[in-house]
Design goal:
The protein is of the alpha+beta class and about 140 residues long. It has one helix and five strands. A hairpin with a 4-residue loop joins strand 4 and strand 5.
Length: about 140
């Protein structure tokens, strides 16, 4: 009596294809969530650079009773477009549009504009901080 035993060494082609399809579905579901996680995490960098520049603005105001839109006066190497540590945001200063429109002596608005992947964060990719303490958009703070 002959006994035949089949030995399988490895996986069949169908098994490999099924594993690839399962991995592709998992990646397709997980990747957008991961990208959103990165955007949310990097937003903290934008908030941090805004707070740091606003702290410098407050010191400048304490010395001269006015704010400045020229960031070199605060010790930064460029007048506008100060880059955050990882390069995901650039900060610029402008006159407030509210509550003191056009008056740099009373209010300054700092805007952090998203760079690279952060530019796709919401519609504008911007975070704003007023010297009055207003932070926009509120859902991003």
């Amino acid at each position: 009596m002959l006994s035949f035993r089949l030995r399988y060494n490895g996986f069949s082609f169908i098994e490999v294809i099924i594993i690839i399809v399962i991995l592709a579905v998992v990646i397709a579901v997980a990747y957008p969530s991961y990208e959103q996680y990165l955007v949310n995490t990097r937003r903290g960098e934008g908030r941090a650079i805004l707070m740091r520049v606003m702290e410098q603005q407050q010191r400048y105001f304490a010395n001269g009773l006015t704010y400045t839109t020229n960031l070199t006066e605060l010790g930064y190497p460029v007048a506008s477009g100060v880059t955050s540590q990882e390069g995901h945001y650039k900060v610029r200063a402008i006159h407030c549009d509210t509550p003191f429109p056009g008056s740099i002596q009373q209010c300054v608005k700092l805007i952090a504009e998203g760079q690279g992947g952060q530019a796709s964060d919401d519609e504008s990719g911007q975070l704003s901080l007023y010297s009055t303490g207003v932070m926009t958009p509120t859902e991003k703070w």
